[in-house]
Design brief:
Immunoglobulin-like, single chain, 9 strands, alpha+beta, 9-stranded mixed β-sheet, 1 helix
C-alpha cells in the first residue's frame, strides 16, 4: 500500500518538475524617467525618475499586452517574463517607451524614458 502511494505521489511531482524546466524565465527591472528641459534654463536637459505613483507600466510582445503594473514610488518596476523582445510603455503617456530583449536566466536593466517636448 505504501509503495503504491509513493509511486502515485511521484507520478504527480514529475510532471510539475518537468513543467518548470520547460518554461525559462527572465526579468526586467528599471525606472520610468522623464527626459526634458530643466526650468528655468531651457537649454539644459536632464533625466529625472517619475515620482508619481498613479502611472501604470505595460509590457507587450508582438502588439499583445502580456503584463501590467502600477509604478512604485520613485518610478520603479520589475517584471518576470519568458525570454523574448518586448515593448515597455506607460499607459497614460505615449511618449514613454523602451524596447528590451530578455534572455533566459538573466536580469535586464532598462529604463522607460518619457520625452518632454
Amino acid at each position: 500500500m505504501r509503495k503504491a502511494a509513493l509511486i502515485f505521489g511521484l507520478s504527480l511531482l514529475v510532471p510539475l518538475a518537468l513543467c518548470s524546466c520547460g518554461s525559462p524565465t527572465a526579468s526586467v527591472q528599471g525606472h520610468v524617467v522623464r527626459y526634458g528641459p530643466v526650468p528655468p534654463t531651457a537649454g539644459t536637459t536632464t533625466t529625472v525618475p517619475l515620482s508619481g505613483s498613479n502611472s501604470t507600466v505595460q509590457v507587450a510582445i508582438a502588439g499583445k499586452i502580456v503584463a501590467v503594473q502600477k509604478v512604485r514610488p520613485g518610478g520603479q518596476f520589475y517584471f518576470a517574463l519568458p525570454p523574448g523582445t518586448y515593448q515597455i510603455g506607460v499607459v497614460q503617456d505615449i511618449t514613454c517607451h523602451a524596447r528590451v530583449v530578455l534572455r533566459s536566466g538573466t536580469i535586464t536593466h532598462s529604463n522607460v524614458v518619457c520625452v518632454e517636448p
